[in-house]
Amino acid sequence: MGAAGAFWGAGSVPIALLCLASVAAVVALSGVARRVLGALLVVVGLVGGFSGHWLAVVGGVLLAGSGVLQVALGGRMPKIGVGGQKARAHDPETEMWRALERGDDPTDDKPRGGPSSNE
Question: Where exactly are the transmembrane stretches of this chain (predicted)?
Fold first, then answer.
């Protein structure tokens, strides 16, 4: 985010928007795709830093640094929606809600479609 602010202040709005979009992309991607994005950020940071404005230089250093981190540590960082998810044990309450969603009566011990006691 700091790199985006620096590039925005330097007048490099397209690079600032790329910085903001890369924040969402880093969270959504994983593995090789995240490392490719990191390499792209390094290149854009180095090229964008040469515009001459001191804020662009600061933004370029920040962006290239974040790209290096993505290349180095991108494989170990969790992907969005995957952190903390574990195989859950059988939860009777969840099964009851799923039965209701299917249209079954979770309190009925008889299988659906079988003879009922009201006949």
Answer: 6-29, 36-55
